[in-house]
Amino acid sequence: MIGIFHVFMWYFLLILYMGQIRGVFGTYEPVTYKAGCSLWGVIFIITGVSIIRAVRHQTQGVITFAFIMNIFCIIVAVIASILTAIELSSFNSVSYRNYGQAKLGREVSRILLISYPLEFSIALTYSIFGCLDLVNTLTAVTEEAESTF
């Protein structure tokens, strides 16, 4: 759900920043908008789907894929948090016409900055339990192979 929220926020920012009027000082295009940080919510969605699949079909390959996706999700959440903090720490002046849009976009970035640690903690929790599940699966396979000999 967090991933879907991030994708919707990306779409909102896209509509918001595309509607800017070229002013004296230019338009406001923060680094998170240019990098598409909130569009990275697709990675959160894929990770969630892989976790659900790993719970339903507990094979070594599916659990490993879910574990790798959780690690990737953690990395993405950290990078997005850093880029958003950089964006919010600096504010170049924009033309008076675009000030309202820039201010609203910064508020969206603040909301996203709150949700990135949430995604980080969820992915970290699932990666820890996924690692334990992977170890249990590997030991069960090893014990099963030893018992056949």
Describe the sheet with the most strands.
Answer: none
Mean pLDDT: 81
Q: Could you give the distance between the termini?
A: 47 Å
What is the 3D form? Answer: elongated
* Beta-strand percent range: under 5%
Point out poorly predicted stretches. Answer: none
The helix/strand class is mainly alpha
Q: Number of folding domains? A: 1
Q: Report helical residue fraction.
A: over 70%
Protein model, in words:
This protein has 149 residues and is mainly alpha-helical. The chain has one domain. It contains 5 helices and no strands. The mean pLDDT is 81. Belongs to the MS4A family. This is Membrane spanning 4-domains A13.
Features:
about 150 residues; elongated; mainly alpha; membrane; CD20-like; transmembrane helix; about 0% strand
Task: Please describe the topology of this protein.
Blueprint: H1 2-18, H2 31-35, H3 41-56, H4 60-89, H5 99-148
Task: Describe the structure in brief.
This protein has helices spanning about 1-20, 30-35, 40-55, 60-90, 100-149.
